[in-house]
Amino acid sequence: MARITASVYTSHVPAIGAALDLGKTQEPYWQKVFSGYEYSKQWLRENKPDVIFLVYNDHATAFSLDLIPTFAIGTAAQYQPADEGWGPRPVPTVMGHPDLAAHIAQSVIQDDFDLTIVNKMDVDHGLTVPLSLMCGQQDKDSGAWPCPVIPFAVNVVQYPVPSGRRCFNLGRAIRKAVESYDEPLNVQIWGTGGMSHQLQGPRAGLINAEWDKRFLDRLIAEPEALAQVPHIDYVREAGSEGIELVMWLIARGAMSDHAPAVKHRFYHVPASNTAVGHLILENT
Known about the structure:
284 residues
């Protein structure tokens, strides 16, 4: 059977993608951010998965206010980097895994989670920035991501958004689905977005490092209790865009019920207008 061996958690700040694409990673401001991923790139080379199940949120690229799926799973064979207004990022096409994606959709929907099945979509910085951070910058024409990726988009932009509890339980359903797949695949699940930030209004620029670090502590040690935190706490403590952190609970819920091994932890302020948080957890 397939199995989930590890989970990766990271912010997906669009300015990080720009810094990578424009060759600014060694500038003093950005070097501090990218230094937190040096270990991660080596870890991924040594622990290359067969498939990455990548949880992210679309930023009005594949979906708009005309169509807002709460949970959407990509079942296509490939996904093009999206043009978010300044041209597509110069990174490789993302190759999918239609068979495993279709199997997960079948299993999770039968477990009473309603998923939107997407057979064609472009993927934006929410997905490509984490790949670049973990894999290193890849050339659009001659490079390739290390393995197929299943995109899993979550609506954390337009209310109502899913609760942390539902996200955590969805992760458990995804774990069950993966483990029932009849091929010995090594699967990693990545949760992206966050950490604390607010992009508009009187509190624009808000960063709450104390909240962020406590969130990381609880994500490791008491995820089921963390999943009970209501939306209003995210908004009040982590800013209007801090709600993206519920996507990390999907990845955490997909992990084993045993305490994970913490392979790497990193936190840095600031990166553009937000905090960067990063964890790698392995199943034990």
